[in-house]
Amino acid sequence: MAIPVPNSNGSHNREINDLATLRATHVDEGLALNQRHLNRQLGRVLQTLGFDREWVRGEGPYLIDSEGKQYLDLYAGFGVFGLGRSHPFVKAQLHALIDSDPPSLPQLGVSTLAGLLAQRLVAHAPASIDAAVLTSSGTESVEGALKLARAATGRSRILYCHRGFHGLSYGSLSVNGNVEFRERFGPFLPGCEPVPFGDLDALAAELARGDVACFIVEPIQGKGVYVAPGGYLQGARELCHNAGALLVLDEVQTGLGRTGRFLAAEHWGVEPDMVTLSKSLSGGYVPVGALLASRAVFNATFDSMERSVVHGSTFGGGDFAAGAGIASLMVIEQEQLVDRARAMGELLMELTQPLQERFEIVHEVRGLGLMWGLELGPPSGRTARRVWEAIERRQPGLFAQMVTVPLFREHHILTQVAGHHMNVIKALPPLNIPEQELRRFAAALESVLADVESGLLRGYASLGLNLGRRMLFAR
User: Fold this and answer.
1) Helical H segments across 395-434, by residue range
2) Which of 58, 69, 275, 281 has the smallest C-beta neighbourhood within 10 Å, fewest atoms?
């Protein structure tokens, strides 16, 4: 079937018969198409920061632009590319699956691949987990957890943490602890209330009211890379159990080996009632997610034949999604990526923790496995602190861009700022990232930090102020 190709004015003057050629023909028009038909403000942000590259290929830990320049991608699609991009095994398995013409999504029927994916996930999960609902995304997994918690307990109140991020659909947004995502979208679902992350006393006080269905929490908060304090998750599990509430662990970003364990919960020996998964389960190809739950939660929700359809997902458990998930789990097992993430995470901390001693502006390096963050803060010198404050007045969190921008422009390394108005640099490397690339990142980071700290009163101060002006103008 021929695909008409639009001109810049929207008319069509020729036809192309395959998608690869269609993409290649328009590869230099990505930003223009975005500005015309998609999120125009996002495009302006990319232009402001200088991140507006035309990407033509993804391969392993790299993105390649239209000029053939290779960038080390430590952004990894918010963690989607845990196996890197275009993993050959996953790609080959999906090609073979497509060629087999599977009976995907019978709806009034069951799928073998969906069952096999659920079986593998449950086998990797804590002993408390015995069943799965397959979904299409992390936020859909969270939505399912909120529904099952209310159905299984007969209670309505849901607790979540300040800074917690669980997705952007309406139920997930109701338990999102970041004001920048919630602003102008309320009112939210009733009965959803925040507690401070790491504060067991605050959690206990809310649970004592006896009406909480569940407490949902990330073992490591993605916004800011805040690791759960020692004893916190174990204490939360005990408090929830005693209060008749369920513990839901959001492992959408921390799961599947990211922290050096298959699930981050294993670091603390916690057995939750539900776990949400997604992102790298896709292999970077087909959107897929999962809500893992105890059999008690399942039986209390799907408690009759009439209620067998009270919750589900149109595309959840489709053969191509399930196939991508199974292939991804195979890669994680065959390449021993959980152990590798632990070893590479230890190396990354070994290479970067000394930066706290060397640079005044580095206040903390933290993380677990290959989920890593570096927090910046004001220097102690009076004049340098004034420059810092001037930059931050332009845009809170702007100082972190003084590190991410030169990392990208000068060293071809893509990182991210870990949250709105946060001066935290975050990296989520693929679990199979070559060791030499981690070393290159650490060396580049040290070089940029040295330039930033020594140049607070000179060029980089100007860069920060200029970035601030451009961001304000973009708004």
Assistant:
1) 398-411
2) 69
* Separation CA 465–CA 469 (nearest Å): 6
Mean pLDDT of the chain: 92
Q: How many CB atoms lie within 10 A of CB 334?
A: 9
Residue 227 has pLDDT above 50, yes or no: yes
Q: What angle do CA 320, 125, 93 make, to 5 degrees?
A: 25
The predicted pLDDT at position 99 comes to 97
DSSP of 192-253: EEEE-TT-HHHHHHHHTTS-EEEEEE-SEETTTTEEPPTTHHHHHHHHHHHHTPEEEEE-TT
Distance CA 136, CA 83 (A): 19
Give the pLDDT band (50/70/90) at residue 464: low
> What is the distance, to the nearest Å, from the Cα of residue 111 to the centroid of all Cα atoms in its chain?
28
Residue found by looking up tokens 């990208």 in the block: 408
- Which one, of 149, 123, 122, lies nearest residue 134 by Cα? 122
Q: Quick check: 364 and 356 in contact, CB under 8 A?
A: yes
pLDDT at 320: 97
How would you class 335 by CB atoms within 10 Å of its CB: exposed for 0-12, middle for 13-18, buried for 19 or more?
middle
- Direct distance between the N- and C-terminal alpha carbons of the chain, in angstroms, rounded to an integer: 43
Give residue 14's pLDDT: 64
Cα distance between residue 459 and residue 200, in whole Å = 45
Name residues whose C-beta falls within 8 Å of residue 416's C-beta, 6 or more positions apart in sequence: 74, 75, 404, 425, 426, 427
pLDDT one-digit tens code per residue, 113-125: 999 999 999 999 9
What gap in Å lies between CA 129 and CA 329, rounded to an integer? Answer: 18
Contact 174, 144 (CB under 8 A): no
pLDDT digits (tens, 9 = 90+) for 179-223: 999 999 999 999 999 999 999 999 999 999 999 999 999 999 999
Q: How many CA atoms lie within 13 A of 184 on its CB side?
A: 1
